[in-house]
C-alpha cells in the first residue's frame, strides 16, 4: 500500500523463500537419520533429489519403495508431506505431516515441518514453539537453525535472527545459507557492498535460487545498476508471474534504466485496473512523465496519491497465469459467475486437496455475492497458508456478512503473525480510526510509516487525524508538513 518504497523495501519476503534452498519446506537431514538402514537412506535421498529437479512422479516411486521397507518411519512421512505439497495436494500434505509427528513426536524434521506449516498458515507466533522444539530435539540441526533465522528475520526480529545465524555458523560453518542470511541482514541495514560480498560467497545467486536472485536485484538497484537488476527480475517474474513485489521491483528497475516505453507497454494495462497498487500506478505515471506525456501521467499520479482502494479486487487477471485460473478470472471480470463457478467446481473435483483451488473458489463466491459461502471455502485454504491478499478478501467477506468483530479479529491476528506488513497495519489502523480508537490507530500507523509507508499520503493523512483527535498539536504540525511535502503541487492535466 505504500506510495513509494526505498530500495531496501524490496527485501520484504526475501527470506521466507529460503524453505527450499537446501531441502524443500524446511525438512532436511537430522543427526538421527544417520542410524537408518543404508537402503532406506538411499531411497529417501533419491526422492529428495528427484523433487529438487521437479521430477515428482519419480520421487513418488522412490517413496513407494521406501514405504515397502519401513512404512512407519517418520522420515518417510515427512518426505511424503513435502511431495504432496509440491504437487498441490496441500490438505493431504498436512495429514502426512501429522502422521510423521505421530510416529516421531521428537523427530526434528517432523517438528520443523510443522513449524513451517504453522508459520505459513498462522504466522510467526504460532510457529515459534515448534521451531524451538525442533532445535531442542537436535541442537545441531542446520536446517532448523536456517529456517528459524529466516522466520525471525521476516518477523522483524533482526537481533534474534543474527543470533540464530551465528548458531547456524557454529553447527555448520560451510553452509551456504550462513553468508546468504548475513547478506540479507547487511542489505536491510543499507550495507550493500558487504551484502554483495556475502551473497557472492554463498554462491546461491549463481545457482539460481530465487530468493538470492531477488536479493541480487535489490542490491543492484541500490548500487545504481538498474539494467542488471531488470535482467534478473525479468527472469524471476517469468517464473513467478503472480508475485506482486517482484513485478513492482521490475517496474522500478525498468523506470530507473530509462526503459519507460517498455514499462508502459508491460504494466500500463495493469495500472489501469482498480486493484493496482499505488506504487505500480505511480511508476507507470513516472514513465509517462519520462517521455513528456503529462496528459496520461496526471490522472495516474492523482490515483496513486489517493492510495489503495479499501475494497480489494477479488479476481484480478495478470499475465502468465495458468489457463484454468485465467479462464475463471476472465469470466468473473465480465460478470459471468455461472461459468466461473462451474469452472472452479470442476477444478475442485480434479484437485480436491488444493488450497489454491479453494482460495480461487472463495474468490468466485465472494465476487458472486455469497460472502458466507466464500468464508467457508476460504477457511479450507487458510489451513495451509494465509497470505495478505487472502486475509484481505476474508476480511471483506466478514464485513459483507455483517460480522465486523470477526473482521477486526482476523486483521489483528494477521498483524500479530506478520508484524512488518505495512498494508495490514494500515488496514487495521483504518478500522480502529473508524471506531474512534485513535491511540491504537496511531501506534499501528507509526510502525507502518517506520517500515516505509511514509511516502503514502493515505496513512499520513490518517496519522494526522489521529494526532488531532489525541490533542497532539506538535505531532499534528509534523504530519501536516510531511503530508504537504509528499503531495505533488500540480496533478491537473494540461
Structure description:
The protein has 494 residues and is mainly α. Among the domains are: 22-137, Tetratricopeptide repeat domain (Serine Threonine Protein Phosphatase 5, Tetratricopeptide repeat, Alpha Horseshoe), CATH 1.25.40.10; 315-398, Tetratricopeptide repeat domain (Serine Threonine Protein Phosphatase 5, Tetratricopeptide repeat, Alpha Horseshoe), CATH 1.25.40.10; 421-489, Tetratricopeptide repeat domain (Serine Threonine Protein Phosphatase 5, Tetratricopeptide repeat), CATH 1.25.40. Helix content is 69%, strand content 0%. It contains 26 helices and no strands. The chain has helices at 38-52, 56-69, 74-86, 90-103, 108-122, 124-137, 142-154, 158-171, 177-188, 192-202, 210-222, 226-239, 244-256, 260-271, 278-290, 294-306, 323-333, 337-350, 355-367, 371-381, 388-400, 404-417, 422-434, 438-450, 457-469, 473-486. The chain is globular. The two termini are 28 Å apart. 50% of the residues are buried.
Amino acid at each position: 500500500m505504500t506510495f513509494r518504497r526505498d530500495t531496501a523495501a524490496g527485501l520484504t519476503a526475501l527470506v521466507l523463500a529460503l524453505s527450499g534452498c537446501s531441502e524443500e519446506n524446511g525438512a532436511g537431514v537430522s543427526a538421527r537419520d544417520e542410524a537408518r538402514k543404508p537402503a532406506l537412506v538411499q531411497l529417501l535421498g533419491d526422492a529428495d533429489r528427484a523433487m529438487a529437479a521437479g521430477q515428482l512422479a519419480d520421487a513418488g516411486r522412490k517413496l513407494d519403495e521406501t514405504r515397502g521397507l519401513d512404512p512407519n518411519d517418520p522420515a518417510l512421512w515427512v518426505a511424503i508431506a513435502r511431495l504432496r505439497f509440491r504437487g498441490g495436494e496441500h490438505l493431504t500434505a498436512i495429514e502426512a505431516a501429522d502422521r510423521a509427528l505421530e510416529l516421531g513426536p521428537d523427530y526434528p524434521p517432523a517438528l520443523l515441518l510443522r513449524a513451517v506449516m504453522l508459520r505459513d498458515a498462522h504466522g510467526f507466533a504460532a510457529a515459534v514453539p515448534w521451531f524451538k522444539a525442533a532445535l531442542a530435539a537436535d541442537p545441531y540441526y542446520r536446517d532448523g537453525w536456517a529456517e528459524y533465522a529466516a522466520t525471525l528475520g521476516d518477523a522483524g526480529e533482526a537481533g534474534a535472527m543474527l543470533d540464530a545465524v551465528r548458531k547456524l555458523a557454529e553447527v555448520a560453518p560451510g553452509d551456504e545459507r550462513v553468508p546468504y542470511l548475513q547478506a540479507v541482514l547487511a542489505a536491510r541495514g543499507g550495507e550493500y557492498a558487504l551484502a554483495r560480498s556475502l551473497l557472492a560467497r554463498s554462491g546461491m545467486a549463481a545457482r539460481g535460487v530465487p530468493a538470492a536472485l531477488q536479493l541480487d536485484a535489490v542490491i543492484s538497484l541500490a548500487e545504481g545498476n538498474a539494467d542488471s537488476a531488470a535482467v534478473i527480475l525479468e527472469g524471476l517474474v517469468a517464473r513467478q508471474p503472480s508475485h506482486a513485489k517482484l513485478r513492482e521491483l521490475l517496474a522500478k528497475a525498468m523506470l530507473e534504466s530509462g526503459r519507460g516505453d517498455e514499462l508502459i507497454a508491460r504494466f500500463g494495462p495493469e495500472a489501469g485496473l482498480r486493484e493496482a497498487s499505488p506504487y505500480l500506478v505511480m511508476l507507470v505515471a513516472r514513465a509517462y512523465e519520462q517521455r513528456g506525456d503529462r496528459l496520461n501521467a496526471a490522472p495516474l499520479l492523482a490515483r496513486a496519491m489517493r492510495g489503495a482502494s479499501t475494497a480489494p479486487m477479488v479476481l484480478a487477471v495478470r499475465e502468465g497465469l495458468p489457463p484454468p485460473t485465467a479462464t475463471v478470472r476472465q469470466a468473473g471480470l465480465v460478470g459471468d459467475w455461472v461459468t466461473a463457478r462451474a469452472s472452479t467446481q470442476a477444478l475442485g473435483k480434479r484437485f480436491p486437496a488444493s488450497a489454491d483451488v479453494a482460495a480461487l473458489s472463495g474468490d468466485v463466491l465472494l465476487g458472486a455475492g455469497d460472502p458466507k459461502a466464500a468464508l467457508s471455502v476460504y477457511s479450507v485454504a487458510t489451513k495451509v497458508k494465509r497470505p495478505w491478499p487472502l486475509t484481505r478478501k476474508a476480511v471483506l467477506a466478514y464485513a459483507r456478512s455483517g460480522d465486523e468483530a470477526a473482521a477486526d479479529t482476523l486483521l489483528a491476528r494477521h498483524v500479530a503473525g506478520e508484524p512488518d506488513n505495512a498494508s495490514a497495519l494500515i488496514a487495521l489502523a483504518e478500522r480502529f480510526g473508524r471506531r474512534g480508537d485513535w491511540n491504537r490507530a496511531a501506534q499501528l500507523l507509526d510502525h507502518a510509516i517506520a517500515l516505509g509507508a511514509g511516502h503514502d499520503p493515505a496513512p499520513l493523512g490518517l496519522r494526522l487525524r489521529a494526532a488531532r483527535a489525541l490533542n497532539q498539536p506538535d505531532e499534528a504540525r509534523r504530519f501536516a508538513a510531511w503530508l504537504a511535502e509528499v503531495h505533488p503541487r500540480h496533478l491537473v492535466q494540461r
